[in-house]
Amino acid sequence: MRIMTSNIWGDYFGNPVDVRIDQILSMYRKYSPDILGLQEITPGWYGSGLFEALSDEYIPVGTERTGNSNYVPFLYKKHLKLLAKGYEYLTNTPDASKAITWAVLRDGEQLFAVCNTHFWWKSGPEHDNIRVENAVQLASLMQEIYRRWHCPVFAFGDMNTLVTSGVFTVYAGNHIRHLWDLAEAKTDIGSHHGDPVKGEDGRYHGKTTDKPHTGSIDHIVALGDGFTVAGYTVVEDQDALDATDHSPVYADVRLI
């Protein structure tokens, strides 16, 4: 099973979605994740035809919220069965786009759960504290799902923090592990490569980062057992560099 997280670069900055959607779709179709967690799904992205274009293979979770108000929906492939789902706004966070969309799914006889999230983004000690609160809320939800469903719980998204931060101290205290650490094969490159630049051709052009994995701010973590991790990959395709400021990250997981 392939789990991918992708901050799609919301059109907050005069960066329209229509010149980037073909590259985004090409990338998702190429890597064909079973779970596709998205962040920064603005009203512009809701109106882009993104979900309609993927509807042959995927079912969305969270897009039904009134007024396209969920900026962190995710999609799952149709061979999976949805058992439960929910949404939580990240409390004490001054941004309605920062939230968690979660679900419990069945793959054959095996259960697993997923939480897609986007943490607070500003820099500075007071903002670090907000992200720690975000992590406490996410960890509490993961523990609640684990107690109820007795299955591995995967969480992923743009957490806007490094692995050396207090967020990961919270995770360690809750027995939540980073899948990069568990992977048999992995890429040692950061996930955030910065804003692509619009060229004279009207298209966006990005460059790969020189940051290692420890410079990543997009993460995939998990609570519980019953799985192994074959690989953990940061996508470096030119489509990813051009279409968004965050390279998608995916993990190939075996449920056991």
Summarize, please.
The protein has helices at 21-31, 43-46, 50-53, 125-149, 166-173, 179-182, 238-243, and strands spanning 2-7, 35-39, 58-61, 74-77, 81-89, 99-107, 110-118, 153-158, 176-178, 185-186, 197-198, 204-205, 218-223, 227-234, 249-255. The protein is α+β, with helices and mostly antiparallel strands.
Strand-helix topology:
Elements: E1 2-7, H1 21-31, E2 35-39, H2 43-46, H3 50-53, E3 58-61, E4 74-77, E5 81-89, E6 99-107, E7 110-118, H4 125-149, E8 153-158, H5 166-173, E9 176-178, H6 179-182, E10 185-186, E11 197-198, E12 204-205, E13 218-223, E14 227-234, H7 238-243, E15 249-255
Parallel strand pairs: 1-2, 7-8, 10-14
Antiparallel strand pairs: 1-15, 2-4, 3-4, 5-6, 6-7, 8-13, 9-13, 11-12, 14-15
Report on the structure:
With 256 residues, this protein is an alpha+beta fold. It has one domain (2-255): Endonuclease/exonuclease/phosphatase (Deoxyribonuclease I, Chain A), CATH 3.60.10. Helices cover 24% and strands 32% of the residues. The strands form 3 sheets. A 7-stranded mixed β-sheet has the order 3-4-2-1-15-14-10. Helix 4 (125-149) packs parallel to helix 5. The termini are close together.
Structure keywords:
256 residues; alpha+beta; 6-stranded mixed beta sheet; 7 helices; 24% helix; globular
Looking at the structure, the CATH topology is Deoxyribonuclease I, Chain A
Strand arrangement within the widest β-sheet reads 3-4-2-1-15-14-10
From the N-terminal CA to the C-terminal CA, the straight-line distance is 11 Å
**How much helix is in the residues?**
10-25%
Oligomer: single chain
Give the number of helices.
Answer: 7
Number of strands: 15
Give the SSE string: EHEHHEEEEEHEHEHEEEEEHE
The main sheet comes to: 7 strands, mixed
CATH superfamily: Endonuclease/exonuclease/phosphatase
Helix/strand/pairing category: alpha+beta
The tally of structural domains comes to: 1
The CATH architecture comes to 4-Layer Sandwich
Strand content: 25-35%
Q: What is the name of the CATH class?
A: Alpha Beta
Low-confidence stretches: none
Radius of gyration: 17 Å
> Shape from CA axes?
globular
